[in-house]
Design goal:
This protein is mainly α and about 80 residues long. The protein has helices at about 15-25, 30-40, 50-60, 65-75. It is built from four helices and no strands. It starts with 16 loop residues before the first helix and ends with a helix.
Length: about 80
C-alpha cells in the first residue's frame, strides 16, 4: 500500500484530500500501470511541477469535475 502526505493538499486541492488519501493507501499498482505512469511522465513538457499543477487547476475551472475524473480515470480501471 502507498502512503500519502495530506499536507500536500491545501487550497483548491483540499476538497480532494480524502479521495487522494484513500486511493493512495488502497490502490495496488500493476507493473503495466507503473510503465504507463513512467511513459506519461517522460512525455511531459519541460515545465516545472508547479506550472503543471496550475494547468490542472485551470482546466478544472474550464471543465468542471476534471480533477475528480482524472483522479479516478485509470486508477480504478
Amino acid at each position: 500500500m502507498g502512503k500519502f502526505s495530506p499536507k500536500r493538499l491545501a487550497g483548491v486541492w483540499e476538497k480532494y484530500k480524502e479521495e487522494c488519501m484513500s486511493l493512495a493507501e488502497t490502490h495496488q499498482w500493476t507493473s503495466e500501470q507503473l510503465v504507463e505512469v513512467k511513459i506519461a511522465l517522460d512525455a511531459l513538457p519541460d515545465q516545472s511541477s508547479l506550472r503543471l499543477w496550475e494547468e490542472v487547476v485551470d482546466r478544472n475551472i474550464r471543465e468542471s469535475g476534471f480533477i475528480r475524473r482524472q483522479l479516478h480515470c485509470k486508477v480504478r480501471s
